[in-house]
Amino acid sequence: MELTSPTYYAKETVQTVQDYVLFCVHAVANLFRKPFYFTDMVRQADAIGVGSLPIVVLTGFFTGAVLALQASNTLERFGSLSLVGQLVSTSMVRELGPVLTSLMVAGRNSSGMASELGSMVVTEQIDAMRALGTDPMKKLVTPRMAATVFMLFFLAIISDLVGLAGGGLVARVLLHLDSRQYWSYAWQTLVFQDIFMGLVKPVLFGFIIATIGCFYGMNARGGTQGVGRATTQAMVASSVLILVLDFFVTRFLMAVLSYR
Amino acid sequence: MSAPTLPLDSDAVTTQDDSAPVVVFEDVALGFAEKEVLRGVSFSLARGETKALLGVAGSGKSLILKLVMGLIRPDSGRIVVLGNDILQMREEDLFSLRGKIGMVFQESALFDSLTVRENVAYRLMEERGVYDEEIDRRVREALRFVELEHTLDLDPAELSGGMRRRVAIARAIITQPELLLYDSPTGGLDPVTSNTIIELIVKQRDVNKTSALLVTHRLQDAFTMATHQFDPQSNRMAALPHGQYCDVPMSFLILRDGKVIFDGDLRQLTQTRDEYIREYIS
């Protein structure tokens, strides 16, 4: 096995980060440049948003359900079982709804984008598109980015609601709590900061998912093996970036919004 | 070989007069990872002429086509296409220049997600936004030219290799480009299908008088093109009588180790004394 020098590795990393930043700038700038591929955007929104709905609903429901189940054990010791709605609500809206939805969508779509665009690169379809007078960044990347950001916002909201419903079902059936009490606590505990944090995150994560997937796809090299590598890299990089960014965004918003 | 200097306009796509060469390469060099692939390549392509680019694998033939299209940039030199110095142009300006050029890729590069109809109509759809009757008429006309009108609603995956190449030709010619670039259009095909493809290229050359650069590994394809002419009466390619081979606008360019070692017509090629070329064409 050939060893890579640390200098070379560092240069490669910096170069990749630079390329990624320029890629993102280009993708965002295309939102304001003609032509606008609205049909492609709607098509992608359908594939990414509607296509991801089943896994997002399932993930959200069972996360809310297990959260209620786990919380009940601890809350019961302090005689506060009735607060389970409050705990499920804040956890789902602030953190688990956006993050788990994003991870699910990343697993399904970031890798999908990388493999689709990567295949187009290695079969010269991207070159053919340029030869036919179309900018692949405008036609392929910007619609995917806009569609992912837009749809992840709503998917996170759906995930939050379904999670709360999952928690509510567990509270009613297994913990024998009053449903009205559960929903009342769940609703009343939420403040503007919670909702704001829960809605900012999917927008940022959607951007990460689409740009990382497209970036690795558009830079795939070396035939089918290269496409496989790009797919894996996109999946890993987007998932890790979502978790890392989640921490910093949470910390930042807590400071900015004077969180309690 | 020295190429003529053309008046340039780097800010927009320009048109040129009929006597000016369609493509001019001046001392073009290109390398990848410290390996020089093209070294001082110079040649020109006259209007209406078809030039076959020959050479062993890895000699840089396909790169020349991508350089003409502006898909990659050389390290040095000058490339003038249809009167435009493409190295002075931004990517946005190149898109409008590419509208005047058609390219047939090595593996066809048809869009998997689109039907044959949508693939062939792609460029017109990009311009107009909707698939109207005029586009439909031109799509059918282009597919009729390659004798594949019946494949309109098929997916590329349902076509054979030869049919995919023919659809790629239809996609390239639908806008009646001034310049056509063929990247190994017969590579990996059986002799009968290869002959069909070559016949279509000859038809495009002789009927529509389109300038073209043709990359090929198959020497016999280039020789067939130089010794045949399209006969519109029989709708078939017909062999020229001996002595009239140079009547067709066909020339040859041979690359070796990234350098041009021959640029001339069939007569010059058969009379060359260069040992390497004699061995190559034998």
Beta-strand segment tally of chain B = 12
Q: What is the overall silhouette of chain B?
A: globular
Count every beta strand of chain A, where a strand is a DSSP E run of 2 or more residues. 0
**Helix/strand order of chain A:** HHHHHHHH
Instruction: Kindly report the spatial arrangement of strands forming the biggest sheet of chain B.
Output: 6-7-8-3-11-12
Shape of chain A: elongated
What would CATH call the homologous superfamily of the largest domain in chain B?
P-loop containing nucleotide triphosphate hydrolases
How much beta of chain B, percentage-wise?
A: 15-25%
Uncertain stretches of chain A: none
Global Rg of chain B: 19 Å
Main CATH class of the largest domain in chain B? Alpha Beta
Helix content of chain B: 25-40%
User: In CATH terms, what is the architecture of the largest domain in chain B?
Assistant: 3-Layer(aba) Sandwich
Describe the sheet with the most strands of chain B.
6 strands, mixed
Uncertain segments of chain B are 1-11
Main β-sheet description of chain A: none
What is the assembly state of the chains in this entry?
heterodimer
